[in-house]
Write a structure and sequence with these properties.
Layout: H1 5-23, H2 30-55, H3 66-71, H4 80-106, H5 121-151
Helix pairs in contact: 2-5, 4-5
Length: 153
């Protein structure tokens, strides 16, 4: 009894799929990486901006909050402690931005000398540490997955 052509095609297709699925790279979640990296960049900018504003309280630089506003409801993949630190730090940054904008609009920059920017250092530092740890764990998991895929060949 000879196998039919459709059955042979099916067997070849199944084997091709098995080979393809075992050799492809694990899919990275670029959306999560994008969020973490964007938030880290904003935190780093804001921490540097504190120093800039302390050296020159007349500076017109605002604190960055764009990524936070964009991602704050989409951070279920990180711990609540990290999100709390982000929320606290960016809340202070937004408050400072409001005061900076009001002072610039009124052209009275005196109140900027007493701007309480240092309050965002600790929550940002904690969130930054947590996000970097998340990146390390994510990197290790992806490399472990790559190592398993190669050893099975």
């Amino acid at each position: 009894m000879q196998p039919t052509i459709p059955l042979l095609i099916l067997i070849v297709a199944v084997f091709a799929f098995m080979i393809w699925s075992s050799t492809r790279k694990p899919k990275t979640n670029t959306e999560q990486l994008e969020k973490v990296i964007g938030l880290l960049q904003e935190i780093d900018f804001n921490l540097k901006n504190i120093e800039t504003r302390k050296a020159n309280f007349h500076s017109k630089k605002l604190f960055r909050v764009y990524c936070w506003r964009l991602y704050q409801e989409k951070l279920q993949f990180v711990s609540e402690d990290i999100v709390a630190g982000l929320r606290d730090g960016f809340s202070i940054a937004e408050d400072c931005n409001t005061k900076i904008a009001a002072a610039l609009k009124s052209k009275d920059l005196g109140p900027l000398q007493t701007l309480e920017m240092d309050k965002m250092r600790e929550p940002f530092a904690l969130a930054r540490t947590g996000l970097i740890e998340w990146l390390k764990v994510d990197y290790e998991q992806k490399n472990a997955a790559k190592g398993r895929g190669r050893s099975g060949r």
